Amino acid sequence: MATARANWKGFIRFGDVTFAVALYTAASSSERIAFNTLNRSTGNRVRREFVDSETGQPVERDDQVKGYEIDNGGYVVLEPDEVASAVPDSDKTLRIEAFVPCDEIDDVYFDKPYYLAPDKMGADAFKLLRDGLRQAKVAALARTVLFRRLRTVLIRPHGKGLVGTTLNFDYEVRSSAEAFEGLPEMKIEGEMLDLAKHIINTKKGTFDAKAFDDRYEAAVAELVKAKIEGRTLPKRKAPPPSKPSDLLEALRESAGVTSSRKPRRTAAKADAGESPPKAKRASRTKTSRSKTSRSKRAA
């Protein structure tokens, strides 16, 4: 982390132990391809500008203020110093309030991950916390002001250091009840469940982040390269429409199991009035017996 630039510097405090730490971004989108908006006619970049919604006139930066809408067209105006006064006071200390089992927090509360490393002095205390968390199999819940907001941070061991994940507040996490409201009540068992387990077992593996490439990013990069070189890329063919299939048959096909059921056309023919195979054989047997009886009486 020596060449990385810390996003935040402060302290971790647990009990009477305090030591300095530096916080670094663990995930960033800065490496993604970025586009600028241009004027098609001139090729010049387009400049974003704030304009008055009624007059259409540009509004200078010094004349722009925050406003909270209280009704249609009515606003409470907040001056910059008033907004700044709402930011909590900070002593830049991550105060650990509790230690919880690592799997106790639902990951829907996870917001953004950051690496935590010792800053200057305090490496011994840092390692003590890291190894203590790892051996006890717990995570630390701490609170501090990060980026102008009071945040709850989940601190866990990560390799040689720690990872701190900011957590969403409860009001920010939507209930799953609405999303799953239309899910019908049904019990899956028997062959269907066995086939699903079989497919899962055959696909078991380990997570390797490098194996999951960003195909969109790669395709855009190739498109930009082709444009620079004056090449045209072949148009992608539309995928064939998927055919609706029976869930059990789809599971059997995925698992490589041959269906033991009779083809549907046999049942269709039977419904149309054609005698099933067993009925035909029974009819022929009955006819043969009748002929044999008549032959015996004639003799």
UniProtKB/TrEMBL annotation:
Write the protein's name.
Non-homologous end joining protein Ku
- Kindly list any coiled-coil regions of this protein: none
Functionally, this protein is described as follows: With LigD forms a non-homologous end joining (NHEJ) DNA repair enzyme, which repairs dsDNA breaks with reduced fidelity. Binds linear dsDNA with 5'- and 3'- overhangs but not closed circular dsDNA nor ssDNA. Recruits and stimulates the ligase activity of LigD.
Ranges annotated as spanning the membrane = none
Q: Which GO terms describe its molecular function?
A: double-stranded DNA binding
Methyltransferase: is it a keyword of this entry? Answer: no
Q: Which InterPro entries match?
A: DNA_bd_Ku70/Ku80, Prok_Ku, SPOC-like_C_dom_sf
Q: Which UniProt keywords apply?
A: DNA damage, DNA recombination, DNA repair, DNA-binding
State the family named in the UniProt similarity comment for this chain.
Belongs to the prokaryotic Ku family.
Q: Name one Pfam family in it.
A: Ku
List compositional bias (Basic residues) regions by residue number.
Answer: 278-299
Domain Ku, by residue range, is 56-185
Q: Where is this region: Disordered?
A: 232-299
Subunit relationships: Homodimer. Interacts with LigD.
From which organism does this entry originate?
Xanthobacter autotrophicus (strain ATCC BAA-1158 / Py2)
Recorded hits in HAMAP family, A to Z, give: Prokaryotic_Ku (MF_01875)
Q: Which GO terms describe its biological process?
A: DNA recombination; double-strand break repair via nonhomologous end joining
